[in-house]
Write a structure and sequence with these properties.
With 442 residues, the protein is mainly alpha-helical. It has one domain. The strands form 2 sheets. Strands 1-2 form a two-stranded antiparallel sheet. The protein has a two-stranded antiparallel ribbon with strand order 3-4.
């Protein structure tokens, strides 16, 4: 009942607390949000702006029912980098605009056929390992950052020993505030971790404020108008399936975190539509594609802040920061070990959600069919299996999602398997319904 109590209170707390929680959610997403455009050659200030307006559009389409924040999608890093080098930034934006419309088509199919087929297409034995991969697949990024390296581990940014001291300070602070904090402090575990980690990093000589001093206070982001190149569009379109699968996994993850089935209300067709239109809208300004952020899902699970209005506050702060150049640069001075320490907990929380799905649905891994699906999915997703070539490949969540769905569809089902699958789906539905009824009585 404690979780339900936290859920209820998050909807009734004062506006200033929602605003503070929204700022915290932006802090959680900030590192990954700006890293993606920096890698692909896009403007991180534009990414902040488009994440904000994309989240607002998503919340409008989903009627402010899903506590989700949208920002830069890592799935598109390789395709965008190639597209920018080959056809230019404007053409890449044009292809991303069309890619966002693919979501609209998918959402239309879901609207016509209903979301019921998703339970058959993606039962707990499929969704569990997919969600686990979302968290565990990001684990190397968190660990590399915690040890003072870049997210991909290619460059050592800070000394190992110093980085470990700073990252563990941030992690331990976050753990203590989340578990022992009282009142308002319990709502600020991540910001507390960032603050302590930043102070420790300053003492270790990791923080440089020279760029902040030299920057102007306000600046308009470098917006870019898209151009439509058929070659760039045809290259980018197949990539859409990857974030679509990731989106379904993220919606299922946040559904299990909050105890509400968002595939039914507001409906998967609305969440897909919101995600797709947010991606198309972002491309009109020169921003990267938007996607539901697993990092924020982990923060929602950790803080029990389930009110979608918090995400509107996060979006408003993102838009404001896009025009405050000095503050944006100041945020970028947060050393990677600080964020790495916090991300260890957040990414692990997401993996825990996937494991919880398997446990609550009583998926029997002693049955060979279930074991094959779960084990193959986990190794493909976490191990970094890639299928394709240098220009386009499926890897990570996109590949393991397709593998899990395909295996579930083609592997023969015995009568016992059919009964177990029906039982798993029924248990999952009962859990969601029980949570709803408990919330109503509360």
């Amino acid at each position: 009942m404690s979780d339900l109590s936290n859920t209820h209170s998050s909807f009734t707390q004062p506006t200033w607390r929602n605003a503070l929680a929204g700022l915290q959610m932006l802090f959680v997403a900030f590192g990954a949000l700006v890293l993606m455009p920096l890698i692909t050659g896009l403007d991180p200030s534009v990414a902040l702006f488009t994440a904000g307006i994309g989240t607002i559009l998503f919340q409008f389409i989903t009627k402010q029912q899903v506590p989700i924040f949208l920002a830069s999608s890592f799935v598109f890093i390789a395709p965008i980098a190639y597209s920018v080098q080959t056809w230019g930034v404007a053409a890449a934006m044009g292809s991303l605009f069309v890619t966002g419309l693919v979501y609209v088509v998918i959402s239309s199919i879901v609207a016509v056929r209903g979301a019921g087929f998703l339970h058959k297409l993606m039962p707990p034995v499929v969704t569990g390992p997919i969600i686990m991969v979302i968290g565990l697949g990001l684990a190397p990024i968190a660990v590399n950052m915690a040890m003072g390296k870049a997210g991909d581990g290619s460059v050592e940014l800070f000394p190992y020993a110093d980085s470990l001291f700073v990252s563990m300070s941030a992690l331990i602070t976050t753990l203590l505030v989340a578990t022992l904090g009282k009142g308002i402090f319990r709502l600020l575990p991540i910001m507390s971790g960032v603050l302590v980690g930043y102070i420790m990093a300053t003492f270790m000589g990791m923080v440089s404020t020279e760029q902040v001093s030299n920057a102007s206070w306000f600046a308009v982001p470098n917006f870019i108008t898209p151009e439509f190149n058929i070659a760039a569009i045809l290259f980018m379109l197949p990539v859409a399936i990857a974030p679509a699968i990731e989106h379904v996994g993220d919606i299922l993850a946040i559904s299990n975190v909050t105890g509400k089935d968002y595939t039914k209300k507001p409906g998967l067709h609305r969440t897909l539509l919101g995600d797709g239109l947010a991606t198309s809208l972002a491309s009109l300004f020169g921003g990267p594609p938007n996607t539901t952020y697993s990092e924020v899902t982990g923060a929602v699970m950790l803080t029990k802040m389930f009110n979608p209005r918090i995400m509107l506050w996060a979006a408003a702060f993102a838009i404001a920061l896009a025009f405050v150049a000095k503050f944006g640069i100041a945020l970028q001075t947060i050393p990677t070990p600080v964020m790495g320490g916090i991300l260890i907990l957040l990414f692990g929380s997401i993996a825990g959600v996937g494991m919880n799905i398997l446990v609550k649905a009583q998926v029997d891994l002693a049955e060979q069919r279930n074991l094959v699906i779960v084990s193959t999915t986990l190794v493909f997703g976490i191990g970094g299996m890639a299928i394709g070539n240098a220009e386009f490949s499926l890897t990570g969540i996109s590949l393991c999602g397709l593998v899990a769905i395909t295996l579930n569809a083609v592997l023969p089902k015995t009568q016992e398997t059919e009964e177990n699958l029906s039982q798993e789906t029924a248990i999952a539905a009962d859990l969601v319904e029980h949570a709803r009824e408990a919330e109503k009585t509360k």
